[in-house]
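Tokens in:
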């Protein structure tokens, strides 16, 4: 095992040296040269942007395959663990091909430390934007391309990825709104221009797909833009509106899937403490409860109450407390703390109306 790890480390170090040489002398031979992909863009899309690109190099793919084969740690930066349980080593239960403790165990520890340092130096990006598909949609009076974008946390495996579907006009609107508010920051951000013809060819769609990946990555690399309502709502506001409509019409199963995707989008974007996120938890709790999934509904209420712990007053605090008390009684969980908080809330605001969580969800304006 130690020999295989050493061989892999030598291969990785050799690959890094080769990449440095290629970066000094032969960068024109890349698989995805940006200048050739975006040569028709007069606004400078061929310039390398500061954001994360959504493709991975061949060396990275080989490393990922090796990790899968060897059962490496799930998180990026975790060293590969030696085969066999640690307890077996203590008991003296060594396999037929394993070596006795001594120099080999020291070598294994040294290799693990070297592996940890080399993997830590890669500094993975937090979020990747990848256009996974693009389809031409024809309606009565219009025809457009719908791009499906995945939000992927680098270095992790998402069992249920967060995804959005947007057309060119959606991106154009985002670009226009951000330029109005962040003129200086947006000066260096390129956007694919409109075309009068050949908008639906495979070549144009491929170029725009890559351009949109770069566009979103560049926006996400700018802190003020990344935290702006314009940028955030581009990703999850449509899902929130759709989920609210589905909930109002009683289509709880379809609404649940849409609320769940909105939850994942906000989680990837790092906005899990906002009013929109609390509304998302309310939607999940209501749909789970309507579908008789009481344990999941109870968990959503608990998560919301943790976020509301430091707030003495919030429009959703009372509805979440009442829902939590009811669900805790149903699933046999402790409800005394929520009952005490609810009693204190009633004493502080005795004349305030007491809407249910579902009523708050339906009446919440999503502009």
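Residues out:
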């Amino acid at each position: 095992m130690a020999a295989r790890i050493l061989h892999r480390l030598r291969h990785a170090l050799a690959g890094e040296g080769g990449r440095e040489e290629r970066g000094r002398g032969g960068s024109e031979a890349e698989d995805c040269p940006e200048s050739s992909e975006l040569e028709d863009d007069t606004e400078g899309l061929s310039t390398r942007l500061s954001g994360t690109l959504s493709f991975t190099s061949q060396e990275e793919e080989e490393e990922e395959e090796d990790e899968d084969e060897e059962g490496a740690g799930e998180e990026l930066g975790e060293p590969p663990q030696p085969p066999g349980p640690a307890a077996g080593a203590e008991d003296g239960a060594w396999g037929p091909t394993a070596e006795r403790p001594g120099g080999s165990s020291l070598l294994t520890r040294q290799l693990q430390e070297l592996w940890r340092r080399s993997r830590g130096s890669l500094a993975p990006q937090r979020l990747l934007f990848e256009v996974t598909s693009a389809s031409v949609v024809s309606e009565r009076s219009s025809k457009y391309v719908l791009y499906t974008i995945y939000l992927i946390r680098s270095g992790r495996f998402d069992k249920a990825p967060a995804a959005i579907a947007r057309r060119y006009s959606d991106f154009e609107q985002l670009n226009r709104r951000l330029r109005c508010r962040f003129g200086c920051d947006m000066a260096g951000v390129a956007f694919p221009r409109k075309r009068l013809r050949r908008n639906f060819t495979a070549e144009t769609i491929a170029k725009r797909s890559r351009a949109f990946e770069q566009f979103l990555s560049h926006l996400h690399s700018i802190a003020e833009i990344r935290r702006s309502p314009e940028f955030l709502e581009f990703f999850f506001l449509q899902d929130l509106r759709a989920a609210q409509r589905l909930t109002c019409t009683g289509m709880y199963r379809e609404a649940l899937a849409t609320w769940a995707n909105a939850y994942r989008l906000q989680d990837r974007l790092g906005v899990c403490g906002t009013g929109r996120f609390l509304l998302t938890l309310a939607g999940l709790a209501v749909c789970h409860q309507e579908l008789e999934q009481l344990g999941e509904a109870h968990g959503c209420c608990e998560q919301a109450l943790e976020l509301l712990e430091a707030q003495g007053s919030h429009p959703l605090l009372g509805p979440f407390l009442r829902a939590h008390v009811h669900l805790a009684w149903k699933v046999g969980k402790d409800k005394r703390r929520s009952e005490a908080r609810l009693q204190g809330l009633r004493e502080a605001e005795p004349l305030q109306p007491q809407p249910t969580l579902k009523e708050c969800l339906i009446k919440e304006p999503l502009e």
